[in-house]
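Entry for the shared binder. Reason: the reviewer on the internal report wants the predicted structure included alongside the sequence.
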Amino acid sequence: MSRQMRQSLAALGCMLALACAPPTNERTDGAAGGAATGEIEADHFLSSRPETLNWGWFPIDKEPVLRIASGETVRIHTLTHVGATQNEDPVEFLTGLGVPREEILDDVIDFWASREGRPREGRSGHVITGPVHIEGAEPGDMLEIQVLDIETRVPWGVNSTSGRGGVFSPSYPGARDDDEALDIPSGRHLIRTGEVDGREIAFFSPDIQVPLAPFMGILAVAPDPVVGEPGVMVPGVQGSRPPGAFGGNLDVKDLTAGTTVYLPVFHPGALFYAGDPHGAQGDGEVSGTAIEQSLTGVFRFVVHKGVTIPAPRAETPTHYLIMGIDLDLDRAAREATRLVVEFLVEQKGLTPDRALSLASIAVDFRVSEVVDLTQVVTGFIPKDIFLDR
Protein backbone atom coordinates (compact mmCIF):
# COMPACT_ATOMS: atom_id res chain seq x y z
CA MET A 1 0.00 0.00 0.00
CA SER A 2 1.30 3.45 -0.89
CA ARG A 3 2.55 6.01 1.60
CA GLN A 4 -0.39 8.23 0.59
CA MET A 5 -2.86 5.54 1.58
CA ARG A 6 -1.11 5.03 4.92
CA GLN A 7 -1.24 8.77 5.57
CA SER A 8 -4.94 8.90 4.74
CA LEU A 9 -5.68 6.06 7.15
CA ALA A 10 -3.57 7.64 9.86
CA ALA A 11 -5.60 10.82 9.52
CA LEU A 12 -8.88 8.94 9.73
CA GLY A 13 -9.25 9.44 13.47
CA CYS A 14 -9.44 13.18 12.99
CA MET A 15 -11.89 12.82 10.12
CA LEU A 16 -14.13 10.50 12.09
CA ALA A 17 -14.08 12.91 15.00
CA LEU A 18 -15.40 15.56 12.63
CA ALA A 19 -17.93 13.15 11.15
CA CYS A 20 -19.31 12.30 14.58
CA ALA A 21 -19.45 15.87 15.87
CA PRO A 22 -22.81 16.90 17.37
CA PRO A 23 -25.32 18.32 14.90
CA THR A 24 -25.45 22.09 14.79
CA ASN A 25 -28.92 23.02 13.54
CA GLU A 26 -32.47 21.75 13.24
CA ARG A 27 -33.72 19.49 10.49
CA THR A 28 -35.02 21.38 7.45
CA ASP A 29 -35.51 18.77 4.72
CA GLY A 30 -39.31 18.72 5.00
CA ALA A 31 -39.60 15.02 5.75
CA ALA A 32 -43.12 13.75 6.34
CA GLY A 33 -43.04 12.43 9.87
CA GLY A 34 -39.33 11.60 10.00
CA ALA A 35 -37.41 11.75 13.25
CA ALA A 36 -36.83 15.29 14.48
CA THR A 37 -33.06 14.86 14.68
CA GLY A 38 -30.35 17.45 14.25
CA GLU A 39 -28.80 18.14 10.89
CA ILE A 40 -25.19 18.40 9.82
CA GLU A 41 -24.63 21.25 7.41
CA ALA A 42 -23.43 20.36 3.92
CA ASP A 43 -21.86 22.28 1.04
CA HIS A 44 -24.37 20.92 -1.49
CA PHE A 45 -27.83 19.34 -1.63
CA LEU A 46 -28.99 16.67 -4.09
CA SER A 47 -32.70 15.92 -4.20
CA SER A 48 -34.41 12.67 -5.21
CA ARG A 49 -36.28 13.97 -8.22
CA PRO A 50 -36.95 12.07 -11.46
CA GLU A 51 -34.07 13.79 -13.23
CA THR A 52 -31.57 12.84 -10.49
CA LEU A 53 -32.75 9.22 -10.12
CA ASN A 54 -31.82 6.02 -11.94
CA TRP A 55 -33.84 2.83 -11.94
CA GLY A 56 -31.77 -0.27 -11.31
CA TRP A 57 -28.42 0.61 -12.88
CA PHE A 58 -25.34 2.86 -12.75
CA PRO A 59 -25.03 4.95 -15.93
CA ILE A 60 -21.42 5.53 -16.98
CA ASP A 61 -22.15 8.33 -19.48
CA LYS A 62 -25.01 10.25 -17.84
CA GLU A 63 -24.40 13.97 -17.38
CA PRO A 64 -23.60 14.44 -13.68
CA VAL A 65 -26.46 15.88 -11.66
CA LEU A 66 -23.96 17.57 -9.34
CA ARG A 67 -20.29 18.55 -9.59
CA ILE A 68 -18.22 19.10 -6.44
CA ALA A 69 -14.62 19.56 -5.35
CA SER A 70 -12.69 16.96 -3.38
CA GLY A 71 -13.24 17.60 0.34
CA GLU A 72 -16.76 18.97 -0.07
CA THR A 73 -19.91 17.56 1.53
CA VAL A 74 -23.27 16.69 -0.01
CA ARG A 75 -26.69 16.03 1.52
CA ILE A 76 -28.38 13.39 -0.65
CA HIS A 77 -32.01 12.32 -0.61
CA THR A 78 -32.70 8.69 -1.50
CA LEU A 79 -35.90 6.72 -2.09
CA THR A 80 -36.83 3.16 -1.31
CA HIS A 81 -38.14 1.26 -4.31
CA VAL A 82 -41.26 0.32 -2.30
CA GLY A 83 -44.08 2.43 -3.70
CA ALA A 84 -41.96 3.87 -6.49
CA THR A 85 -41.54 0.99 -8.95
CA GLN A 86 -44.63 -1.29 -8.85
CA ASN A 87 -47.36 -1.19 -11.51
CA GLU A 88 -50.05 0.00 -9.11
CA ASP A 89 -50.57 3.72 -8.41
CA PRO A 90 -48.23 4.60 -5.50
CA VAL A 91 -50.88 6.24 -3.33
CA GLU A 92 -53.24 3.28 -3.70
CA PHE A 93 -50.39 0.83 -3.21
CA LEU A 94 -48.92 2.43 -0.08
CA THR A 95 -52.19 3.37 1.60
CA GLY A 96 -53.23 -0.23 0.96
CA LEU A 97 -50.24 -1.30 3.06
CA GLY A 98 -51.31 1.10 5.81
CA VAL A 99 -49.16 4.15 5.05
CA PRO A 100 -51.09 7.39 5.70
CA ARG A 101 -51.37 9.61 2.63
CA GLU A 102 -49.53 12.47 4.35
CA GLU A 103 -46.50 10.19 4.87
CA ILE A 104 -46.03 9.48 1.17
CA LEU A 105 -43.26 11.64 -0.26
CA ASP A 106 -44.03 13.66 -3.39
CA ASP A 107 -40.71 12.34 -4.74
CA VAL A 108 -42.14 8.80 -4.75
CA ILE A 109 -45.22 9.86 -6.72
CA ASP A 110 -43.22 11.90 -9.21
CA PHE A 111 -40.68 9.15 -9.86
CA TRP A 112 -43.46 6.59 -10.35
CA ALA A 113 -45.07 8.91 -12.88
CA SER A 114 -41.76 9.13 -14.77
CA ARG A 115 -41.25 5.38 -15.04
CA GLU A 116 -42.83 5.06 -18.48
CA GLY A 117 -40.19 5.19 -21.17
CA ARG A 118 -37.30 4.31 -18.84
CA PRO A 119 -35.44 1.32 -20.37
CA ARG A 120 -35.64 -1.83 -18.26
CA GLU A 121 -33.66 -4.49 -20.11
CA GLY A 122 -30.75 -5.74 -18.04
CA ARG A 123 -31.64 -3.53 -15.10
CA SER A 124 -32.61 -4.22 -11.49
CA GLY A 125 -35.19 -2.73 -9.12
CA HIS A 126 -33.36 -0.18 -6.97
CA VAL A 127 -33.96 3.57 -7.10
CA ILE A 128 -30.55 5.26 -7.08
CA THR A 129 -29.59 8.95 -6.76
CA GLY A 130 -26.72 10.35 -8.86
CA PRO A 131 -24.23 10.61 -10.34
CA VAL A 132 -22.08 13.08 -8.41
CA HIS A 133 -18.90 14.14 -10.24
CA ILE A 134 -15.92 14.73 -7.91
CA GLU A 135 -13.37 17.00 -9.57
CA GLY A 136 -9.92 15.51 -10.01
CA ALA A 137 -10.91 11.86 -9.67
CA GLU A 138 -9.42 9.70 -12.42
CA PRO A 139 -9.17 5.96 -13.13
CA GLY A 140 -6.55 4.48 -10.82
CA ASP A 141 -7.42 6.83 -7.95
CA MET A 142 -9.34 5.98 -4.81
CA LEU A 143 -12.49 7.75 -3.62
CA GLU A 144 -12.99 8.14 0.12
CA ILE A 145 -16.62 8.53 1.22
CA GLN A 146 -17.09 9.69 4.79
CA VAL A 147 -20.60 8.88 6.00
CA LEU A 148 -21.29 11.87 8.23
CA ASP A 149 -24.99 11.39 8.93
CA ILE A 150 -27.97 9.22 7.96
CA GLU A 151 -31.55 10.31 8.72
CA THR A 152 -34.96 8.77 8.10
CA ARG A 153 -37.27 10.71 5.78
CA VAL A 154 -40.50 8.90 6.73
CA PRO A 155 -41.59 6.98 9.86
CA TRP A 156 -42.16 3.69 8.07
CA GLY A 157 -40.46 0.98 6.07
CA VAL A 158 -41.44 -2.27 4.39
CA ASN A 159 -39.97 -5.77 4.52
CA SER A 160 -41.01 -8.50 2.09
CA THR A 161 -41.07 -12.27 2.68
CA SER A 162 -41.71 -15.35 0.59
CA GLY A 163 -41.13 -19.08 0.82
CA ARG A 164 -39.48 -18.75 -2.60
CA GLY A 165 -37.51 -15.54 -2.08
CA GLY A 166 -34.18 -14.55 -0.58
CA VAL A 167 -32.16 -17.59 0.49
CA PHE A 168 -35.19 -19.78 -0.30
CA SER A 169 -35.34 -18.77 -3.95
CA PRO A 170 -34.95 -21.64 -6.46
CA SER A 171 -32.29 -19.49 -8.15
CA TYR A 172 -30.29 -19.04 -4.94
CA PRO A 173 -26.74 -20.36 -5.51
CA GLY A 174 -27.12 -22.90 -2.71
CA ALA A 175 -30.53 -24.19 -3.83
CA ARG A 176 -30.98 -27.85 -4.80
CA ASP A 177 -33.72 -29.46 -6.87
CA ASP A 178 -34.84 -31.62 -3.96
CA ASP A 179 -35.13 -28.77 -1.43
CA GLU A 180 -38.49 -28.93 0.32
CA ALA A 181 -40.83 -26.02 -0.40
CA LEU A 182 -41.39 -23.94 2.72
CA ASP A 183 -44.80 -22.90 3.97
CA ILE A 184 -43.98 -19.20 4.31
CA PRO A 185 -46.66 -16.88 2.88
CA SER A 186 -45.61 -14.14 0.49
CA GLY A 187 -46.26 -10.71 1.89
CA ARG A 188 -45.17 -7.16 2.49
CA HIS A 189 -44.86 -6.10 6.11
CA LEU A 190 -45.29 -2.42 7.00
CA ILE A 191 -43.03 -1.54 9.90
CA ARG A 192 -43.56 1.73 11.74
CA THR A 193 -40.56 3.61 13.11
CA GLY A 194 -40.22 6.34 15.69
CA GLU A 195 -38.39 7.50 18.80
CA VAL A 196 -38.28 5.89 22.24
CA ASP A 197 -36.13 7.58 24.88
CA GLY A 198 -34.24 9.52 22.21
CA ARG A 199 -33.49 6.46 20.06
CA GLU A 200 -35.08 5.55 16.76
CA ILE A 201 -36.89 2.23 16.93
CA ALA A 202 -38.67 -0.08 14.51
CA PHE A 203 -41.92 -1.26 16.09
CA PHE A 204 -41.96 -4.78 14.69
CA SER A 205 -44.81 -5.92 16.93
CA PRO A 206 -46.38 -4.86 20.25
CA ASP A 207 -43.69 -6.80 22.11
CA ILE A 208 -40.73 -6.58 19.68
CA GLN A 209 -38.75 -3.38 19.08
CA VAL A 210 -35.69 -3.31 16.81
CA PRO A 211 -33.20 -0.42 17.11
CA LEU A 212 -32.85 1.47 13.85
CA ALA A 213 -29.38 1.56 12.33
CA PRO A 214 -29.96 3.34 8.99
CA PHE A 215 -27.49 2.92 6.16
CA MET A 216 -27.34 3.00 2.38
CA GLY A 217 -27.42 -0.47 0.88
CA ILE A 218 -25.88 1.04 -2.26
CA LEU A 219 -22.75 3.18 -2.26
CA ALA A 220 -21.11 3.06 -5.67
CA VAL A 221 -18.93 4.66 -8.28
CA ALA A 222 -19.66 4.21 -11.98
CA PRO A 223 -18.51 0.70 -12.88
CA ASP A 224 -16.65 -0.67 -15.87
CA PRO A 225 -19.30 -3.15 -17.06
CA VAL A 226 -18.29 -6.17 -19.13
CA VAL A 227 -20.95 -8.41 -20.66
CA GLY A 228 -20.91 -11.77 -18.93
CA GLU A 229 -19.90 -10.43 -15.54
CA PRO A 230 -22.55 -10.55 -12.78
CA GLY A 231 -25.41 -8.16 -13.53
CA VAL A 232 -24.17 -7.19 -17.01
CA MET A 233 -26.54 -8.53 -19.66
CA VAL A 234 -26.52 -5.51 -21.99
CA PRO A 235 -23.36 -3.69 -23.15
CA GLY A 236 -22.65 -0.70 -20.91
CA VAL A 237 -25.40 -1.56 -18.41
CA GLN A 238 -24.44 -2.72 -14.92
CA GLY A 239 -27.59 -3.89 -13.16
CA SER A 240 -27.75 -2.76 -9.54
CA ARG A 241 -28.47 -6.12 -7.90
CA PRO A 242 -24.95 -7.61 -7.62
CA PRO A 243 -22.21 -5.61 -5.88
CA GLY A 244 -18.69 -5.62 -7.25
CA ALA A 245 -15.35 -3.83 -7.23
CA PHE A 246 -17.23 -0.56 -7.85
CA GLY A 247 -19.20 -1.02 -4.60
CA GLY A 248 -22.89 -0.97 -5.40
CA ASN A 249 -25.42 -3.10 -3.55
CA LEU A 250 -23.02 -4.14 -0.79
CA ASP A 251 -25.73 -4.30 1.90
CA VAL A 252 -23.07 -4.18 4.62
CA LYS A 253 -25.15 -3.03 7.57
CA ASP A 254 -22.14 -1.51 9.36
CA LEU A 255 -21.80 1.35 6.85
CA THR A 256 -23.72 3.70 9.11
CA ALA A 257 -22.90 7.27 10.16
CA GLY A 258 -19.32 7.51 11.40
CA THR A 259 -18.00 5.02 8.85
CA THR A 260 -15.64 5.73 5.97
CA VAL A 261 -15.89 3.76 2.71
CA TYR A 262 -13.14 3.47 0.08
CA LEU A 263 -13.86 2.63 -3.58
CA PRO A 264 -11.60 2.37 -6.63
CA VAL A 265 -12.27 4.87 -9.42
CA PHE A 266 -13.00 3.67 -12.97
CA HIS A 267 -14.18 6.85 -14.74
CA PRO A 268 -13.26 10.55 -14.65
CA GLY A 269 -15.06 12.23 -11.77
CA ALA A 270 -15.71 8.83 -10.12
CA LEU A 271 -19.49 9.36 -10.64
CA PHE A 272 -20.88 8.49 -7.22
CA TYR A 273 -24.30 6.93 -6.61
CA ALA A 274 -26.30 6.20 -3.43
CA GLY A 275 -29.53 4.29 -2.92
CA ASP A 276 -31.27 1.17 -1.60
CA PRO A 277 -31.80 2.91 1.77
CA HIS A 278 -32.37 0.66 4.79
CA GLY A 279 -33.64 1.48 8.26
CA ALA A 280 -32.26 -1.73 9.75
CA GLN A 281 -30.94 -5.05 8.46
CA GLY A 282 -29.48 -8.25 9.83
CA ASP A 283 -26.29 -9.71 8.40
CA GLY A 284 -27.28 -11.74 5.35
CA GLU A 285 -30.54 -9.90 4.54
CA VAL A 286 -31.93 -13.42 4.22
CA SER A 287 -35.50 -12.60 3.11
CA GLY A 288 -34.06 -10.53 0.26
CA THR A 289 -35.05 -7.19 1.80
CA ALA A 290 -34.29 -5.19 4.93
CA ILE A 291 -36.48 -2.42 6.36
CA GLU A 292 -36.74 -0.62 3.02
CA GLN A 293 -37.04 3.01 4.13
CA SER A 294 -36.31 6.33 2.38
CA LEU A 295 -33.30 8.08 3.93
CA THR A 296 -31.15 11.20 3.68
CA GLY A 297 -27.38 10.85 3.85
CA VAL A 298 -24.62 13.41 4.33
CA PHE A 299 -21.28 12.48 2.79
CA ARG A 300 -17.84 14.02 2.43
CA PHE A 301 -15.84 12.98 -0.64
CA VAL A 302 -12.04 12.94 -0.79
CA VAL A 303 -10.00 11.93 -3.84
CA HIS A 304 -6.73 10.06 -3.22
CA LYS A 305 -4.54 10.41 -6.31
CA GLY A 306 -2.67 7.33 -7.49
CA VAL A 307 -3.97 5.11 -4.68
CA THR A 308 -5.19 1.82 -6.08
CA ILE A 309 -7.31 -0.70 -4.19
CA PRO A 310 -8.73 -3.93 -5.66
CA ALA A 311 -12.12 -3.93 -3.96
CA PRO A 312 -14.35 -1.92 -1.63
CA ARG A 313 -13.16 -1.51 1.92
CA ALA A 314 -14.25 0.57 4.88
CA GLU A 315 -13.49 1.44 8.44
CA THR A 316 -15.41 2.28 11.55
CA PRO A 317 -13.95 3.91 14.67
CA THR A 318 -13.14 0.39 15.94
CA HIS A 319 -12.49 -1.83 12.90
CA TYR A 320 -11.08 -2.06 9.40
CA LEU A 321 -13.62 -3.73 7.09
CA ILE A 322 -12.23 -5.77 4.19
CA MET A 323 -14.85 -7.14 1.75
CA GLY A 324 -14.66 -10.30 -0.32
CA ILE A 325 -17.20 -10.54 -3.17
CA ASP A 326 -17.94 -13.59 -5.30
CA LEU A 327 -20.85 -15.52 -6.83
CA ASP A 328 -20.02 -18.38 -4.45
CA LEU A 329 -20.15 -17.80 -0.69
CA ASP A 330 -17.15 -20.06 -0.07
CA ARG A 331 -15.16 -18.15 -2.67
CA ALA A 332 -16.25 -14.85 -1.12
CA ALA A 333 -14.88 -16.06 2.23
CA ARG A 334 -11.63 -17.06 0.54
CA GLU A 335 -11.39 -13.68 -1.20
CA ALA A 336 -12.08 -11.79 2.03
CA THR A 337 -9.32 -13.76 3.76
CA ARG A 338 -6.87 -13.11 0.91
CA LEU A 339 -7.59 -9.38 1.00
CA VAL A 340 -7.27 -9.26 4.80
CA VAL A 341 -3.85 -10.89 4.53
CA GLU A 342 -2.88 -8.43 1.80
CA PHE A 343 -4.05 -5.50 3.94
CA LEU A 344 -2.10 -6.68 7.00
CA VAL A 345 1.05 -7.14 4.93
CA GLU A 346 0.82 -3.76 3.23
CA GLN A 347 -0.64 -1.68 6.05
CA LYS A 348 0.83 -3.32 9.16
CA GLY A 349 4.11 -4.71 7.82
CA LEU A 350 3.44 -8.36 8.61
CA THR A 351 4.79 -11.25 6.61
CA PRO A 352 2.10 -13.22 4.76
CA ASP A 353 2.28 -16.19 7.13
CA ARG A 354 2.02 -13.96 10.22
CA ALA A 355 -0.83 -12.04 8.58
CA LEU A 356 -2.77 -15.26 7.98
CA SER A 357 -2.09 -16.33 11.56
CA LEU A 358 -3.46 -13.01 12.87
CA ALA A 359 -6.47 -13.27 10.55
CA SER A 360 -7.33 -16.64 12.04
CA ILE A 361 -7.02 -15.64 15.69
CA ALA A 362 -8.21 -12.01 15.75
CA VAL A 363 -10.30 -11.20 12.66
CA ASP A 364 -14.04 -11.92 12.48
CA PHE A 365 -15.33 -12.92 9.05
CA ARG A 366 -19.03 -12.11 8.78
CA VAL A 367 -21.51 -12.93 6.06
CA SER A 368 -22.78 -9.45 5.17
CA GLU A 369 -25.23 -10.39 2.42
CA VAL A 370 -26.14 -13.56 0.54
CA VAL A 371 -29.13 -12.64 -1.64
CA ASP A 372 -27.79 -10.35 -4.37
CA LEU A 373 -26.25 -12.86 -6.79
CA THR A 374 -22.69 -11.98 -5.80
CA GLN A 375 -22.26 -12.50 -2.09
CA VAL A 376 -20.27 -10.50 0.44
CA VAL A 377 -18.11 -11.73 3.31
CA THR A 378 -16.50 -8.98 5.39
CA GLY A 379 -13.38 -9.37 7.50
CA PHE A 380 -13.54 -7.19 10.63
CA ILE A 381 -10.02 -6.34 11.79
CA PRO A 382 -10.10 -4.82 15.30
CA LYS A 383 -8.03 -1.67 15.59
CA ASP A 384 -7.34 -2.02 19.30
CA ILE A 385 -4.96 -4.97 18.77
CA PHE A 386 -2.44 -2.61 17.18
CA LEU A 387 -0.54 -0.82 19.91
CA ASP A 388 0.82 1.81 17.49
CA ARG A 389 -2.61 2.81 16.21
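Summary line for the report: The radius of gyration is 20 Å.
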